[in-house]
Design brief:
This protein has helices spanning about 10-20, 25-45, 50-65, 110-115, 160-165, 185-190, 225-235, 270, 280-295, 310-325, 330-335, 340-350, 355-365, 365-375, 405-410, 440-455, and strands at about 45-50, 80, 120-125, 135-140, 140-145, 170-175, 190-195, 215-220, 260-265, 295-300, 380-385, 415-420, 430-435. With about 475 residues, the chain is an alpha/beta fold.
Amino acid sequence: MSADGDTPLGVSAVSAALARGEITATDLTQTYLARIDARDPALNSFISRTPELGLRAAVASDARRRAGAARGPLDGVPIAIKDNIDVAGVPTTGGIGALRGRIAETDAPVIARLKAAGAVILGKLNMHEAAHGGTTANVAYGLCHNPHRHGYTPGGSSGGSGVAVAAGLCAAALGTDTLGSVRLPASLCGVTGFKPTQGLVSTRGVLPLCWTLDHVGALAPRVADLRMMLEVMAGFDPEDAVARRAPSWLTLGSGQRLQGLRLGCLNPTAIVGEPIDAEVGAAYERAIATLRDLGASMIDIELPGYNSTALRSKAMLMMEGDLAIFYADDLARDPDGFTQELHQGIAYGRNQNAPRMSEAYRMIRDVAPIMRAAFAKVDALIMPTTPVPAFPFTQAMPKTLASFTALANYIGAPAATVPMGKTAGGLPLGLQIVAREWQDARVLNIADAYESAAKHDMAPPPAS
């Protein structure tokens, strides 16, 4: 559903329409399901659809609204879920062929919270196999195409989430983020994405990639939608090993001015280790000027000792070691249900010795003091979300794709991406904002202020 057929409507707009009685949740859900039927065959953002589940929830939402008992802003709002998050009675494949028949017995806590708020679930979304990659070039379930250009990656691993939101196939989507897997597809598909402080949103009931780096986040057309999603998703889960109680001062009020804020501008080349795409760099400079006009003090800042290349290899080692543990039984049962690429990654993790793994964890841990030193000087950091725009599936993924996004995962910090325009060829670009842990509201407020001032039109081209 969209205002003009191509510009996606997010949670805020859909919620307001439901509250005003302009549409029922049932009609809204049927509209989205019809749009998925019409558009998704060319995009392949859904692995499975749940029309019966969604329509039951929509009918119940309409009944509550007629009785004056709506559960809140998300009641009746259609969303979709990355296919590594459990929804009771629905397959959770993790994008892995061997897991086609894995039916979730219970809802992940984050799904339970969304259902309790009245959200309508439309289906499960395509992703990079096991979340172990950034292109969503999925062998078992098919390539997932960027709605801005067919044959181009939407990013990953939450590629289906980015595509479904950008194409207007849902009002918002859940994704997971280990080195940037919410923010990468959000950026490359021209929508907003948010990874909260680690521990704020439960990761229980999610197929893990790396227990110490995994987060659950959201993607949506606008920052206001992310705010509404987070207010429902957030909550202490005592059974989640990484859960932490948020400080009482965590608030989600919005703000359109940035007067008095110190924003640290990172040198993209210094972080990536090589020059970034020229159009990304130019858009970043324009974003800095916009933030300055909003009243922020823009401060050039460095991260001495931060080596994204070395850290990336250590993070991959940690991920592949965890994958070797988690998928051991599935590999033994159905080795042909995993691609050769994933077999190689898991074998690499399995064959590493304890000292190498210990060194990897130490190097990731040592990012924290580097970032503390930076946040002693500034209130938040800004940088491009990706060093390049979307690229064709025929091109290898740049090893530096997650160089900007990964640093927030290393320290469990909140991070958002917001569109910062398009290339001359029409491919989306993203601006990332990162702050210290529990400053989720600050990140969203900065993103909101920038979005409102920049007014980028990120609608994909009309479907052919």
